[in-house]
Amino acid sequence: MSVHHSPQPLNHKLITPGTLVLLILTGIGLCFAAWRFMFGIGAITNLDQQHPWGIWIAIDVATGVALAAGGFMTAALAHVFHREHYHAVVRPALLTAMLGYTFVGLGLLVDLGRYYNIWHPMLPSMWSGHSVLFEVGMCVMCYITVLYIEFLPIFCERFLGEERWPRLRALCRRLHGALNRIMFLFIIAGVVLSCLHQSSLGNLMVLAPSKMHDLWDTPILALLFLLSAFAVGYPMVIFESMCAARAFKLQPEMHILAPLSRFVPILLGIYLCFKIGDLAVRDKLGLLAEGSPQATMWVIEVVLGVVVPMALLLMPRVRNTPSGLFIAAVLVVGGVALNRINVFLVAYQPLYPQKTYFPSIGEVAVTAGLISLLIFCYRVIVNYFPVISHAPEAKTS
Amino acid sequence: MGFTRRGFIKTLGVVGAGTIAAPQPGRASSDSPHGNRDNDVGVLVDVTKCIGCRRCEFACQEAAGFNPADIDSFEDKSAFNTPRRPYPRSHTVINRYAHHEGGGPVYAKFNCLHCLDPACYSACLVTAFSKQPNGPVVYDPSRCMGCRYCMVACPFEIPTYDYDDPLTPQVRKCNFCAHLVPEHQALPACVKICPAEVMLYGKRSELLELAHERIRSQPGVYVDHVYGEHEAGGTSWLWISGVPFEQIGFHKVDAKAPPRLTEAIQHGVFKHFLPPLMWYGLLGAAMWLTRPQPTGDAAEHGGAPETGEARS
Question: What global pTM score does this model have?
Fold first, then answer.
């Protein structure tokens, strides 16, 4: 039985050289975003009539959603299947998911032409049950709400021992108690909602078969998206936990992360079987030998992002050394991110191409700014709220 | 304007369009998820007749509420130097293609085909697109969020976007002049202005028969293909041409409407909400079955998973 540390606010310095860089990147991104809101999407992006979606959809939205999968994967493991050993990683993963989805929303606001209508899917008069995107939108909105509810107890705990504001403390205590009794309902809902929209996100591109490169033009794209979300959940938690340990000078929690990584090769293996099997069944394996840019990207995505980390994580020596585990996790995270970029950008071939799409400086700046702001917010929140479990020397009552 | 012979020919088929005519026996009826489409209006474009005057482009811009340049400026043939696509200001364009078998140039009009089972409609999450009862696929900017999924989805790459408008950008495409002639008793602007009788406006089902009739009766003039009869599940606009369609910028498009696959998957996953509810139930059961057994000192650990960490 491992020692069960309780999460504590870290109370680190907020402004460090690292966070300054984050804030500068955020500032640059904000400037470009302001430019976009004043002069239109066309003013700062390379989007055109043939390329309606760029990296703001492929990275900010699609990759953002995929990499937030750690939230529901750890909730399922620790809370649904009661693997108590993994409790310590649930909160950081939950925070990542909450921030991740929040920033998916922010990214969408920048990308949507009529961002002020983003609430329209909530109006029954606008509902369109036939739309895949409607389902994705509704599930994401519900899931964001669930994530915030799941985070509320952490928010409350911050004030449970707060002597300065007795009224707030009493309120938090009541809320905390009430939430704890019904939280299991939201935890299961979060897992169900995640499975639904993680898969439907892939179904989006099935509607455009004539424009999708054959390597990704498959009716089971939704299933592949779901399986890859399963596979990336724990590596993302490992990646993030080790980054946080480095940033806050804590010991990496190898006693949790190493056993957690044992699930990954299994999940990657299932994903890989479907990925290869899909090509085989559709008789498209020959395309890989064509040497097209798409084939190259597919090979990178699958070999570096799936096969190599799977092989690495099958070795106990890799799983149990921090650097080995970190590299394997980074490969999986990068592989799934590349998959989303491949599906939404590389595979997308306009019928009447005039030029190829490559993201503009403005698009990259906005995306980098959003990611920097996300990391900064993560840092602020773990600083003031009990998210990360301390190493043994932390004070326990 | 009087009742000209040309006007009469153009409206040849429209007579029955407003009224409900019984589907004629012996012809395959075109059913789509949007109901029976036999009475939809449509346009038959005869590519062999087009002279490339681009007056339809002028009329289209005018009808869409833009201020087109002087009509004579549309005589400018340099517009044909590179193939163009419909763009936000002009929802129809004429392109010139060299005749592969040595004939004169071929002029091909292109615009929204008004699918019987539109992918843009299926894509849109706020029903900004609607399939009108008589056929036109119409866009309502007041609903639109500007996500541009319709542009991704369209199998003909028709919708375009006002990328330079920061506040009220719209998806732009031909709406069959539905804003001018809602009941479709009159001609769309491009059909009306055409001096060469390229387009015939009428009931789609009748136009389809007429198209096949023309192909049959003038051997050697047309290729045996009515573009839009089956493409993407069928479209309201139909084309016949003297050269293969691939040579004049018309892609080969699958006969199956793209929404049929995605909506089948989607409706399978959400069938009466049963699969999500079952998934919820299964996870709930797993949660209950794997719950930690009370061991005395930590007895309250049961259904509320966060309590273990809640104590300060």
Answer: 0.90
